[in-house]
Amino acid sequence: AFRHSCPRSHSCPTRRRPAASMVAEPVPMVFKTGSSAGKVKQGKITNEDVLRREVPWSAFKEKGIISKDELELMYQLVEIVQSKSVAAQAALIEMRSAEHAQLFKALLTGVNKDEVVMYILSLLDELLKQKPTLASLFHAALYESGGAIDVFEPMLKLLSRQHLFILEKTTVVLAKLLSWDHYIPPAPNPNLEAALARKLRSFAAWAVALLKNVDPQDGFDQPRVVHVLGGVQQLVSSAPGRIAFVEADGLPLLLGLMSGGHYGTHSAVQLLYVVMVVVWSISYTPECASKLGHAAGLVPKLVDILKSVQKEKVVRVTCAALRNLVGVGSCSSDMIGAGVMKALLHLQQRKWADEDVKEDVDYLVEALEGSLKSMSSWDVYAKEVASGRLEWSPSHRSDHFWKDNYKAFEQNDGETLKQLVGCLASPDPTTLAVACHDVGEL
Prior knowledge:
It is built from 24 helices and 2 strands. By secondary structure, it is mainly α.
């Protein structure tokens, strides 16, 4: 259900924008819904399944939830979506943007029945799938009404529902709307800008809170994992969304999801891939890339993934993330210290179905060789020890290295020495062997 290809723009040689196709489409949720006869159905439900149902829209007019004009607008909108002609009819929809936004606000506020809420969310999802720029419609309605036509607030309230399909659709649709950053209001409105920023932060905090409950050992088999990560992917597709996610302290959770599982199953690899897409997307905003670089253990973990995971789609997105981090803070030297050069030289020998992988690997080798030349043997050694993963690189077995650098262990209050002692507790046998050797040399 997730697109594995990642076509990317080559307009910038070093920092390329994430492609829209890289944002994963969530797997349809398995859920239960009650019928009028009280029966319970189970199955994988798609937008098409939901939109085939008949909804008594006229009943909502009779109850005063929507007006006569809004009822006619709803019938027209349903016909446009079901005929897959949203793109062709987009101008018609945009001409009445405030009316459409008010219609959705009225229904999301006034209707509580699961089946109807499912229909409304599926309709919104299809609108945004067929014509993503329609997200501007809801921002325009908010600004032009002075905040009166607010579709975001009732959708945020839906995040407390227990119905998995409603949660899935709300997560994805809300992420698409809140992360949309292409709308330019006709006049600045600091109050509305602040209100939208609060909603974005609220959604990011909710997503991060749910990610805390994800066990990487479960892989990608849990429905809640699918819809939350799908929402996070959409959220970090824009700079404001990336910043909100990072400020909600989401980076340590991503590191935990990258580190906690074993990559022997398709489900575990898929979870890792989706997490890596999120990391890659975050790396496109300089402020967030800097935070990635400072996240303890993240760069060494990316290098570790290159060494240990063979799946091409994972290698591709990991290399793309590392490429974006070259030159960010100490990331280049951190990569070298974690042993990335050996991994990259190995990857250069492989044949790839996607030419982007070879391009990124070659770029990383060239860029990091330049960084390596400016680093002393002690710099490289200290970075390796700081990464927590040791290999039998030349420094460890060089008598000259130890004679020239033993006093450097006293620098910074013995920081490198303390890190070396910490490696004695490593579960990795090679790291443990090298650490014992180095303590003996010292």
